[in-house]
Write a structure and sequence with these properties.
This protein is an all-alpha fold. It has a domain of about 130 residues. Helix content is about 45%, strand content about 0%. The chain is built from 7 helices and 2 strands; from the N terminus they run H-E-E-H-H-H-H-H-H. Strands 1-2 form a two-stranded antiparallel sheet. Helix 4 packs antiparallel against helix 5 and helix 5 packs across helix 6. It starts with a helix and ends in a 7-residue tail after the last helix.
Length: about 220
């Protein structure tokens, strides 16, 4: 009886050992799949084309641009990049020369928006139907004082009788006549520009001037 019991245990032990050996050999001979090789290709970024500014057509025959320059002829409807005109009269009226420290030049909101509104309604924004003054080609005037007078008249025509219009117009007239300005008057001029044309660049010009005053920088007006 005991012999038969031990014989069965011995047989079971041998069987388990054989099974373990077979399983071990199987796993040792099984190849582990290799990880796939990834090849990365360097791609250079494609440069984006520079956006062009589209300037709409006007029907009044003249308009201001954001940089305070005037055009008498209407633009084509095809989009194009705008190049700032350079004239002797505008260079002489560059207010940035007033300061020994460069202050950002204020700009105006595109005047063509007002022209487009008049083209749609057929009536000038100011309510004035007489467009003979200033003349349509006033921007060609080479005389600095007469150019400033026409500019003043154009402001009155498009904005009406406003304190800010008079501040800007009188500042331009004084500059054309060679009358030196003061810090207070020049600050009022920038404030008026920002009131009529509340864009970011006009705000920066006004803030920069005030920072220069706070820092004690020397600013001269000729």
């Amino acid at each position: 009886m005991f012999r038969e019991f031990f014989s069965k245990r011995f047989f079971i032990g041998v069987l388990v050992l054989v099974i373990c050996c077979v399983v071990s050999v199987y796993f040792l001979n099984t190849d582990t799949p290799e990880a796939p090789i990834k090849i990365y290709k360097v791609v250079e970024p494609v440069a984006k084309p520079t956006a062009e500014v589209s300037i709409g057509d006007t029907s009044r025959g003249g308009h201001f641009h954001a940089d305070d320059t005037w055009h008498a002829e209407p633009h084509e409807s095809v989009a194009h990049a705008y190049t700032k005109e350079s004239t002797n009269s505008r260079t002489a009226d560059d207010w940035r020369e007033d300061s020994e420290i460069d202050v950002p030049q204020p700009t105006a909101t595109p005047w063509k928006k007002l022209d487009a509104q008049e083209a749609d309604t057929g009536t000038p924004v100011s309510g004035d139907t007489d467009d003979t003054y200033p003349p349509r080609d006033w921007h060609k005037t080479e005389d600095p004082e007469l150019h400033a007078e026409y500019f003043y008249a154009q402001l009155l025509k498009q904005f009406g009788d406003m304190p800010e219009v008079h501040i800007i117009g009188e500042h331009r007239l004084n500059r054309a006549k060679g009358i030196p300005s003061t810090f207070t008057k020049f600050e009022a001029y920038l404030e008026a520009m920002y009131h009529l044309f509340p864009d970011e660049k006009n705000k920066q010009a006004l803030d920069q001037l005030r920072k220069l005053r706070a820092s004690g920088a020397k600013i001269s007006f000729h």
